């Protein structure tokens, strides 16, 4: 499936069934990730062969990012924030399958997934090839 060159994400209609499917998949990923974190420290994890490249790029684009400081959801989901994340993730379009997949994000790296500490965002999954 290809997306029209005239497609504008900010004007796209939300389809409840698609959002529900994303939510189910995102919860499954969160549960799997949390199970891993219960056995290993996050700093010891290497989930893909591109982890270091993605992290280095993240720190280049978002130099103020600090996993010990809670995320500012309003800033992240603002027009400027969304564009910054879109540009960051677009670098991986041809390198990573599902490069812009929806996921649950913990807003506070010190807290578990919960109603007040979790937001829906985008995340990068599995490298191609």
UniProtKB/TrEMBL annotation:
Pfam families: PBDC1. Residues 18-121 form the Polysaccharide biosynthesis domain. PANTHER family: PROTEIN PBDC1 (PTHR13410). This is Polysaccharide biosynthesis domain-containing protein. Coiled coil: none annotated.
């Amino acid at each position: 499936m290809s997306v029209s060159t005239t497609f504008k994400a900010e004007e796209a209609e939300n389809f409840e069934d698609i959002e529900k499917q994303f939510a189910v998949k995102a919860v499954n990923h969160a549960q799997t990730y949390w199970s891993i974190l219960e056995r290993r420290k996050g700093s010891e994890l290497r989930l893909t062969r591109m982890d270091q490249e993605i992290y280095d790029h993240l720190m280049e684009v978002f130099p103020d990012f600090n996993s010990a400081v809670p995320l500012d959801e309003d800033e992240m989901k603002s027009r400027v924030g969304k564009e910054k994340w879109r540009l960051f993730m677009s670098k991986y379009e041809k390198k990573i399958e599902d490069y812009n997949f929806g996921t649950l994000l913990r807003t506070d790296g010190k807290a578990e997934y919960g109603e007040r500490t979790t937001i829906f965002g985008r995340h990068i999954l599995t490298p191609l090839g």
